Amino acid sequence: GQNIDQPTEMTATEGAIVQINCTYQTSGFNGLFWYQQHAGEAPTFLSYNVLDGLEEKGRFSSFLSRSKGYSYLLLKELQMKDSASYLCAVPGTYKYIFGTGTRLKVLA
Amino acid sequence: KAGVTQTPRYLIKTRGQQVTLSCSPISGHRSVSWYQQTPGQGLQFLFEYFSETQRNKGNFPGRFSGRQFSNSRSEMNVSTLELGDSALYLCASSLGTGSNGYTFGSGTRLTVV
Prior knowledge:
The complex is a heterodimer of chains A (about 110) and B (about 110).
Chain A: E1 3-5, E2 9-13, E3 18-25, E4 32-37, E5 44-49, E6 53-57, E7 60-65, E8 70-75, E9 84-91, E10 96-98, E11 102-107
Chain B: E1 5-7, E2 10-13, E3 19-24, E4 31-38, E5 42-50, E6 53-57, E7 64-68, E8 74-78, E9 87-94, E10 103-104, E11 108-112
Parallel strand pairs in B: 2-11
Antiparallel strand pairs in B: 1-3, 3-8, 4-5, 4-9, 5-6, 7-8, 9-10, 9-11
């Protein structure tokens, strides 16, 4: 079967660094996506990893280890606007399987 | 370019009624997927359409149905509404292959009373 696990909630302080983990089990692997979703809004694309390693994009970086079925999203220099849910997703057959999302609260 | 357009944004219906939601994908995107999002369950896959064909369907009762038109616009219908159908319904547009990623619409917030 296919399954994705993420922590439900995390809290961090403005200016800090936070790492959001995602573990997955899939019958095949075609990459892993991270999306950001602010309350009441649509999810928006953050990153896509298909090869092992770290991909950096400004304050956000995403890491993948295919052998461990593990990914993380690293957010640096946290800002209040980073308070949102972060969704990990893997493509399946004509669909994506999403984790339940990690709600991140950034405190001043 | 225009994004993914979902209408209506908000909807209130009573139990037993039916509802139709609409989604217009990004121009050139032939795949439209529908998801139900609730606080406890996260995003649950409903169905995916590509060039008017349903290629996959999630584990939802037959009350949930959908279709796609030749211009790639899609509709989903929920009949005999139940209180548990209250959710955010998201439409996602893509080119249709696994690595392309989704662009989501703003969603339709359905409340069943």
